[in-house]
Amino acid sequence: MYICKIFLGTTINENNMYNNKFVKVLTVFLLFVTVSVNAKSEAVEKGEKKDIKTEIKEYIDHHLLDSHYFNLFSYDTDDGKHKYIGAPLPVILWDNGLQVFSSSKFNHGKTVAEVNGNYYKLYHNKIYKTDANGTINYDEEHHATNEKPLDFSITKNVVFIIIVGIIMFFMFKRMATNYKKSPIPTGMARLLEPIVLYIRDDIARPNIGEKHYRRFMGYLLTIFFFVWIVNLFGLTPLGVNVTNNIAVTFALALLTYLITTFSGNKNYWKHIFWMPGVPIPMKILLAPIELLGTLIKPFSLMIRLYANITAGHIVLMSLIGLMFIFKNWIGSPLSFGLAFALALLELLVAALQAYIFTMLSALYFGSAVEEHH
Amino acid sequence: MTIPNIVGAGLIVIGAGLGIGRIGGSAMDAIARQPEASGKIQTAMLIAAALIEGIGFAALFAA
């Protein structure tokens, strides 16, 4: 892959004409002073240019999907092989009994994995059951019609959810031991105390109310730190994209929905099914709308987190990709600067989305436990 | 992506942008009038902006 080759620093010498060191320096100097694009290399790369564009597009599309591998990058070796740097992850399937094997058996979709007499093939990131030759049948719309076993694999997203879980466990464990030593916070406690207090005093207390807020603090703190750390991981070059996955945000929103529903008091349900203070025809009209509203609230939580992080990743990766499309001394630094600025903005968005998710959850809990007044 | 989809997405962005812009502008006015309440105003602003953004994204997915 061309992009990765540049990342690795193994740049290819395209024009043998520039072998002379002096000419090389002169060319770089000329590129600096002249505004015009190097027309010669442009013409040489024209055939390759479209490839880079589609390659970047594929790269972004691939990044947005969950994967059975944990790959840092991949590149073409000199003897024409495509090498991946990373680790295979365990595959767990339920197909008439539990089937556990390593995803290295798929060989990145190239070979058929044989496990206990069953054959599986990785096709477009999904596992299909095939025959020994790995044939995949298609319907008219070119969708695979092979049987799909239930997939409980530890994919890239699952790995990072577990890692973030472990990080959070040790963070708060340290915080607890710090407090046991002395009431004055030191170390990890000093780092986390302002954030915890902020969530308590500025999110939970005003929105849920003095009487009930303690019950929800555990959930609110967990969701805030989880979403925040996961979002921050998404900005590292590890290629993590946990909150880019709508299934993950769905699960988070489902938790908020369940907690809201099960902690709703009489007053809450009354406001949904029999709105006080409005005429009876309005009450009947409002009931279905309010009932739908309880579902739309977690739905918007899910979409908001997912769409914000996905949009951020797409734009950031496109800007990084632009550097390799421009490949001149004006466009590339410009897109680098833009990508850098956007990365800083994403740093803010990572915290902001965690904050908004927590804030809106607190708001919904608050409406569920609000007393009649 | 077909042309109606693109036009629809553009309209959504215009609408959401106007909405969030109005919220931001009003919040600025409010903070200028009462600088001591800026914390509360910011919170309310973020919630309102997030709600509009949520609808905007939902519409973008539909488009």
What can you see in these coordinates?
The complex is a heterodimer of chains A (373) and B (63). Chain A is mainly α. Chain A folds into 3 domains: 2-76, no CATH class; 90-151, no CATH class; 156-369, no CATH class. Chain A has helices at 2-8, 21-33, 39-64, 156-181, 188-208, 213-234, 246-263, 266-273, 280-326, 331-369; strands spanning 69-76, 82-88, 90-94, 98-102, 113-115, 118-123, 126-130, 150-151. A 3-stranded antiparallel sheet of chain A has the order 4-3-8, with no helix packed on it. A 3-stranded antiparallel sheet of chain A has the order 5-6-7, with no helix packed on it. A two-stranded antiparallel ribbon of chain A has the order 1-2. In chain A, helix 4 packs across helix 6 (213-234), helix 7 (246-263) packs parallel to helix 10 and helix 9 (280-326) runs antiparallel to helix 10. The longest helix of chain A has 47 residues, at 280-326. Residues 1-19 and 22-47 of chain A have low confidence and may be disordered. Chain B is mainly alpha-helical and 63 residues long. Chain B has a single domain (3-62), classed as F1F0 ATP synthase subunit C (F1FO ATP Synthase, Up-down Bundle), CATH 1.20.20.10. Chain B contains 2 helices and no strands. Chain B has helices at residues 3-33, 38-62. Chain B is elongated. At the A-B interface, helix 9 and helix 10 of A face helix 2 of B.
